[in-house]
Amino acid sequence: MSARTLFEKVWQAHEVVAATADTPAVLYVDLHLTHEVTTPQAFTLLRERALRVRRPDRTFATMDHSTPTDRAQLFGAVPIRMESAARQIRAFEQNCADSGIELFGLRHERRGIVHIIGPELGLTQPGRTIVCGDSHTSTHGAFGALAFGIGTTEVAHVLATQCLLQRKPRTLAVEVAGALPFGVTAKDLVLAIIHELGVAGGTGSVVEYRGATIRALSMDERMTVCNMTIEAGARAGMIAPDETTFEFLKDRPRAPQGADWERAVETWRALPGDPGARFDRTVALDAARLAPMITYGTNPGMSVAVTGRVPERPGDEVHARALAYMGLEPGQPLLGQAVQDVFLGSCTNARLSDLRAAAGLLRGRRVAKGVRFLVVPGSQSIKREAEAEGLDRVFTQAGAEWRESGCSMCLGMNGDTVAKGAYCVSTSNRNFEGRQGSGARTLLASPITAAAAAIAGRIADPREFLS
Ligand code: SF4
Question: How far is CA 348 from CA 2, 170, 427, in A?
Answer without folding.
Answer: 36, 25, 7
